[in-house]
């Protein structure tokens, strides 16, 4: 092998074990790796005839003086030996269609995914079973097992009414939220506790056998600006009862509600111990009686259909939480919440946030009411 043929030096010199025959020019057309050819093509093109040069010895785009690389054609060819035959596609489609299906109970409104799957497969994705509405499931089973058309009709009407009421709650929430954005006198608040957050979180199996410290996270979502405010504290400070809910609502009213607001719409789920009790009614009533606000309306959803903006915020936190396999301190949760969304604000609850409203209101209100509450249906 001469020096001129490897003018840039042989990177494999002294390392390859093949015989010199492998590097002879005649081997180059057989598609074998040929170091001598590389050197000749790159630096000694005059050694080849014009015909040889055009026979793909050089890349075409270079041989024509064009410095732009050719378009990458990978993945665009029609030779696809592994492509599924149309018959197999049809069978897959038939198999998908054989899955049991049911209509989502969350909303009757279409979304883009629902539209695609309904148009292409007539199926949609539902929530996991643990998250379905018990009443919807019960009525669906009864409808499927109805003995007569008349019975089926009655059950279908009952289910339809149930879903209409659920939809009405969400329509009202949407309308009132829009109102709060347009009129500074109105505000919309939704609130809820997140599922308890454990400490520590660790991949170590031993953690499961220890008593963990619970961290509580109370979310209050403001309709006018779309922000979520998280009141965070651990179980050594307080619990998750009606006193905590009223206390944290009061802090929220004092610090985050615009001063010009005179009417508030509150939306929360039906949890009796936290949100649907006499004490909370007494607390809200006192705010109106003392002329703090002109009007407060607290709305509860149809049981089983209580997905609120807070739940969407909790979903974002859970997603961020999954990225952390070690969480040791409450402040780690605070950082996780803050990083989950730029519209999330965290407030660390201290003892001076909390009041014993329950005992306080017992002095001003009867223990039992003679006239039962009137539930307004729409
Ligand atoms: Zn339902």
UniProtKB/TrEMBL annotation:
Residues 57-70 have a biased composition (Polar residues). Pfam families: DUF7869 (PF25273). Residues 71-87 have a biased composition (Basic and acidic residues). InterPro entries: DUF7869. Residues 236-368 form the DUF7869 domain. Coiled coil: none annotated. Residues 1-33, 46-87 are annotated as: Disordered. PANTHER family: INTEGRASE CATALYTIC DOMAIN-CONTAINING PROTEIN (PTHR34415:SF1). This is DUF7869 domain-containing protein. It comes from Aquatica leii. The lineage of its organism: Eukaryota, Metazoa, Ecdysozoa, Arthropoda, Hexapoda.
């Amino acid at each position: 092998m001469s020096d001129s043929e490897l003018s840039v030096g042989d990177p494999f010199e002294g390392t390859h074990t093949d015989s010199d025959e492998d590097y002879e020019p005649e081997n180059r057309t057989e598609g074998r790796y040929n170091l001598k050819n590389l050197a000749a093509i790159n630096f000694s093109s005059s050694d080849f005839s014009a015909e040889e040069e055009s026979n793909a010895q050089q890349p075409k785009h270079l041989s024509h003086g064009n410095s732009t690389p050719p378009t990458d054609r990978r993945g665009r060819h029609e030779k696809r030996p592994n492509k599924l035959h149309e018959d197999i596609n049809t069978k897959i489609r038939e198999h998908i269609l054989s899955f049991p299906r049911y209509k989502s109970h969350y909303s009757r409104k279409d979304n883009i995914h629902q539209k695609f799957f309904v148009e292409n497969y007539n199926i949609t994705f539902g929530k996991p079973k643990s998250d379905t509405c018990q009443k919807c499931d019960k009525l669906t089973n009864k409808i499927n097992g109805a003995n007569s058309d008349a019975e089926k009709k009655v059950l279908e009407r009952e289910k339809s009414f149930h879903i209409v009421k659920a939809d009405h709650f969400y329509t009202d929430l949407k309308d009132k939220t829009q109102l709060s954005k347009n009129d500074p006198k109105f505000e919309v608040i939704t609130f809820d506790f997140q599922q308890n957050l454990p400490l520590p979180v660790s991949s170590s199996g031993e953690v499961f056998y220890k008593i963990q410290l619970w961290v509580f996270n109370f979310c209050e979502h403001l309709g006018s600006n779309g922000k979520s405010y998280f009141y965070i504290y651990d179980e050594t400070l307080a619990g998750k009862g009606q006193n905590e809910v009223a206390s944290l609502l009061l802090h929220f009213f004092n610090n985050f509600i615009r001063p010009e607001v005179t009417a508030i719409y509150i939306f929360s789920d039906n949890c009796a111990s936290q949100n649907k009790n006499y004490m909370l009614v007494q607390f809200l009533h006192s705010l109106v009686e003392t002329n703090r606000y002109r009007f407060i309306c607290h709305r509860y959803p149809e049981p089983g259909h209580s997905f609120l903006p807070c739940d969407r915020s909790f979903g974002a936190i859970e997603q961020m939480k999954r990225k952390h396999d070690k969480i040791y301190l409450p402040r780690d949760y605070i950082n996780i919440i803050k990083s989950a969304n730029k519209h999330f604000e965290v407030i660390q609850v201290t003892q001076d946030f909390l009041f014993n409203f329950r005992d306080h209101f017992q002095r001003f209100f009867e223990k039992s009411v003679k006239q039962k509450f009137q539930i307004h249906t729409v």
